[in-house]
Amino acid sequence: MADAEDIEPVVCDIGTGMVKAGFAGDDTPRAVFPSIVGRPRHSGVMAGMGQKDAYVGDEAQSKRGILTLKCPIERGIVSNWDDLEKILHHTLYNELRVAPDEQPILLAEAPLNPKANREKMTQIMFENFNAPAIHTVPVYENYRLPHVILHLDLAGRDLTTALMKMLNEGGCCFTTSADQEVVRHIKEKFAYIALAYEQESAMSESSVAEALFQPKMVEMDDAAGIHETIYNSIMKCDIDIRKELYGNIVLSGGSTLFPGIADRMSKEITALAPSSVKIKVVAPPERKFSVWIGGSILASLNTFQQ
């Protein structure tokens, strides 16, 4: 076994849409691929082609025409542990090419991840991958305010499903899991956030992403918009730190990549917040990897494994 001091911990952020994995201290993840597992739709369809029972990530994506694609994570929470294990195996052995029994591993998790899920993940890492140490960390702030965490049950996949429905109503025919991946690419390439949505046409490219601010557009009538959720979270904090929080709203994650989202967020929160406070919304260019970068910094500290 290599000297532990010479081994950089592995950092993994397995999200609903994408897996980000790499080594502590790096600026960006070494491996980024879709959090999907694909299985042949029909037995024997890939006979003679080195058929496997399951394909992961980019390989599943490239064969999506003959596979059924599934994601083992729903809204940040693991829903299929067998498929998650396949993703972990692919990440460690094929993408990073490491021996997990020699690597400390940091796993980022959703802030409201159930305790049972954390225990199950720990069991898999120790028993199936023989990891020497696993650190499961909710990486979302430098310090924790767990009582103000609010959850908006709306994610990028919901927007993809809504766009799929719109396209089908317009005469297209998107029905399979492979079709859903095509629609996701359309969404990511063309959708944007309008500063003044009421001035947009009903079928503009902004109509799908608008659901982040108006969840009722995807039949979530009782849900607050993303701006209202942020406002409500800040208002749960001590009054002495609210001003600082209003001035440090940092966007992160794949669903914050829509053009125009920072300006719209600033406009909407300004309308909700007291007129005396200054609103600042920060949209870092690397925000797709913000959670992973936070984990990379944390795992590179000398105190991390102590």
TrEMBL record:
Name the predominant localization: cytoplasm
UniProt entry tagged with the keyword Glycoprotein: no
- Would the keyword Protease turn up in this protein's UniProt record? no
GO CC terms, sorted: cytoskeleton
Note one Pfam family from the annotation: Actin
Localisation per UniProt entry: Cytoplasm, Cytoskeleton
Keywords linked to the UniProt accession: ATP-binding, Cytoplasm, Cytoskeleton, Hydrolase, Nucleotide-binding
Superkingdom of origin organism: Eukaryota
GO molecular function annotation: ATP binding; hydrolase activity
- Which Gene3D superfamilies does the record cross-reference, listed alphabetically? 3.30.420.40, Actin, Chain A, domain 2 (2.30.36.70)
Q: Which reaction does it catalyse?
A: ATP + H2O = ADP + phosphate + H(+)
Name the family the entry cites: Belongs to the actin family.
Name under which the protein is recorded: Actin
